[in-house]
Predict the structure.
Amino acid sequence: MTPLLSVRDLKIRYQVRGALAAALTGESAEIEAVSGVSFDVARGETFAIVGESGSGKTTLARTIAGLVRSHSGSVLFEGQELTRRRPAELKEMRRQMAIIFQDPVGSLSPRLRVRSILAEPFRVHGLAGKAMPRQIDRLLDLVGLPKEIAGRYPHQLSGGQARRINVARAIALEPKLLIADEPTAGLDVSVQGEILNLLNELRERLGISMLIITHNLHVVRHIAGRMVIMYLGRIVEAGPTARLFSAPRHPYTAALLSASPRPDPDAMLQRLEISGEIPSLFRRPTGCEFHTRCPFVREKCRFEPPTLTVAGPGEFFTCHFPLT
């Protein structure tokens, strides 16, 4: 079956200084925030992109949503290429693809009541009409909020309520793909679970696909069937979530897992740590880009970039000396 979303060799560059400044400093005028990323998202699937801050995962998500332009590569949505379309041509496609932003309150207009916020997608696409009040009631019911909230302003909402309003706005036009950028950021642990359960319920009820962007592996384990791990704008490991949790091959994946709570305090991954800062995109390390922080680094890693190794359908990693 054709994937709902197919990303191929996507590269995203930013110009961060002028040509003169680049010549004076000896550094590039551009940075490559995302470099050669490829993956597919199936219909009805929840797929996760995981990495630390600065890994390029949010830039990647915004490019897929048409908010950031790519330098090269391909993004196919339902078989249609998105990267070379003009903004006016993307409007219809955006009915089928919605994004939940990381800041639940900041992404809502402080001057609008909830009812106006939820009506906005319908107005933008010329679908507002007499049935609007019923549509708003339906959306509030879908995300588990009482109808009375429609009269409130964003500052009158709790963090969990604001997140649910973001979800309601995103699903208003019944999209086929929902992109959730850090869907539980800033929420208490108990509220995080409620939001994750809500997203799971909506996926099953509405049949939508979800692309989850997060650094929180607890989120991934709870909701995603497959995942990719990003480091410095590249995918270093990909595969089924259960497989990567049980036996990660890349040391960076293992290090991320070691920072996540595990039921066995004596497990090896609990003791695996990485040190040092994430390298600058201006000065990418030679060889394996993770070698400056890898606890298992060998001489080969410092000078020779690892090639991509396919371990099975949808499974691959880039490491000279995999853990398993």
User: Anything to note?
Assistant: The chain is about 30% helix and 20% strand. Residues 18 and 29 are 6 Å apart (CA to CA). The longest helix spans residues 189-206.
